[in-house]
Amino acid sequence: MDPALLLVLCLSCLLLLFLWRQSSGREKLPPGPTPLPIIGNILQMDVKNMKKSFSNFSKVYGPVFTVYFGMKPMVVLHGYEAVKEALIDHGEVFSGRGYFPVSERTSKGLGIIFSNGNRWKEIRRFALMTLRNFGMGKRSIEERIQEEARCLVEELRKTKASSCDPTFILGCAPCNVICSIIFQSRFDYKDQDFLTLMERFNKNFKILSSVWIQLCNNFPVLLDYFPGIHNKLFENIALTKSYILEKTKEHQESLDINNPRDFIDCFLIKMEQEKHNSQSEFTMENLVSTVSDLFVAGTETTSTTLRYGLLLLLKHPEVTAKVQEEIDRVIGRHRNPCIQDKSHMPYTDAVVHEIQRYIDLVPNNVPRAVTRDIKFRNYLIPKGTAILTSLTSVLHDGKEFPNPEKFDPGHFLDESGNFKKSNFFMPFSTGKRMCVGEGLARMELFLFLTSILQNFNLKSSIDPKKLNTTSISAASISLPPLYKICFIPV
């Protein structure tokens, strides 16, 4: 037989096999747009603005639908009711983490973010307990944040009211809080190791929010045979883990099991306690991955929210003025803000919530997977199927938040001006995979923002009305556009 004809026949058979498997699988899954062979629904979606594509699909197929990224199906949950039913009512089943080639290369299924099963449960439980013991939500961590807030204010004073890009300075503060929890001590903002860490985190966050990484996750062949920014991501993560391992070895040499100084000490003590357990999840490799995850979750997410928040306050000076009036009335100018002040500052609390709601930091959440076959809303979702939960559809629900595309602190205030809670507020996700550092992040956002506004007036280098507050990336992470700001001492 002619080789060319044989090749055509083989490819045709593979294509028919793919179509048969895809069609048989689709019969069980929720409905969705018809995928093309190999590439799935990629051409039917705006990969730079997935949340808009999902919104359009939900209007056609309902709140639960299936899309194909390449040959891999993903079930999308759109709207509060579907998200709540899955992540809270069926929390255990929807607590898995899907397989993604990029994260598999970097984490190897270790740590907190991308681990599964018993490993995830043990490491998450340990991390939560340790953070609580070190005061997450208690005074000791509040004091660390207050100390960092004072350092942040001093760094902002050094700008001498000149126009500046706040990205670096706003990244230093939350990173140092994490450093104080993990490494015991904070870094000077000019420390070279600290500067290197900051540069890597910032670069990695931008890479992870790129369309290219989405393509690599869906077509993993790109990782091995094509050049691209994924190689820089892998290099940065490897260097960061090497630094963490170096610091861990220093901890081992000075460890006092009766007096743990930080998170690394606690993990090392747990390793020693379980050294005879061959099935223990407390290994050096898992320690490095867990610390790396805490940095990822606790640095760039908070700093991006702060940066986006200041942009919104520049755009809306009337909101800034109300926050500063509340600061003057409740805190004054002669003492540092504390977390107890929040209960007496409903407008400021509402502003912080509205910033998180409006920016919609992680539009489609970190993807989940079902841990077993489940019948969900009359559809059979097989074990291991990837799940995308549209947090946008919850945070921007028009019935809960009138004019959801408008920045309005009134979304979290009642008619009397008191703070109003909402079950739709899910910037940290919800259920069993909810962000481990939620309590820390909430405390940081309140204390950092109030400290800044207590000490500075904000001034834009251009007319505030002309400021663009639309995210420059609506793929996996929402990033604010670059802008310049002047911090004018009050």
Automatic annotation (TrEMBL):
The EC number(s) this enzyme carries: 1.14.14.1
Reactions catalysed, as given in the entry:
an organic molecule + reduced [NADPH--hemoprotein reductase] + O2 = an alcohol + oxidized [NADPH--hemoprotein reductase] + H2O + H(+)
- Give the cofactors, semicolon-separated: heme
Task: Provide the GO MF annotations for this entry.
Answer: heme binding; iron ion binding; oxidoreductase activity, acting on paired donors, with incorporation or reduction of molecular oxygen, reduced flavin or flavoprotein as one donor, and incorporation of one atom of oxygen
**Endpoints of the signal sequence:** 1-25
Q: Name one Pfam family in it.
A: p450
Q: Which Gene3D superfamilies match?
A: Cytochrome P450
Q: Which PROSITE patterns match?
A: CYTOCHROME_P450 (PS00086)
InterPro entries on file:
Cyt_P450 (IPR001128), Cyt_P450_CS (IPR017972), Cyt_P450_E_grp-I (IPR002401), Cyt_P450_E_grp-I_CYP2B-like (IPR008068), Cyt_P450_sf (IPR036396), Cytochrome_P450_fam2 (IPR050182)
Provide the binding site for heme.
C435
Q: Where in the cell is it found?
A: Endoplasmic reticulum membrane; Microsome membrane
Membrane topology type, per the record?
Peripheral membrane protein
The terms describing its cellular component in GO are:
endoplasmic reticulum membrane
- Enumerate the Gene Ontology biological process terms: organic acid metabolic process; terpenoid metabolic process; xenobiotic metabolic process
UniProtKB keywords: Endoplasmic reticulum, Heme, Iron, Membrane, Metal-binding, Microsome, Monooxygenase, Oxidoreductase, Signal
Its annotated function is as follows: Cytochromes P450 are a group of heme-thiolate monooxygenases. In liver microsomes, this enzyme is involved in an NADPH-dependent electron transport pathway. It oxidizes a variety of structurally unrelated compounds, including steroids, fatty acids, and xenobiotics.
| Homology family | Belongs to the cytochrome P450 family.
Record's protein name = Cytochrome P450
- Please name the source species: Prolemur simus
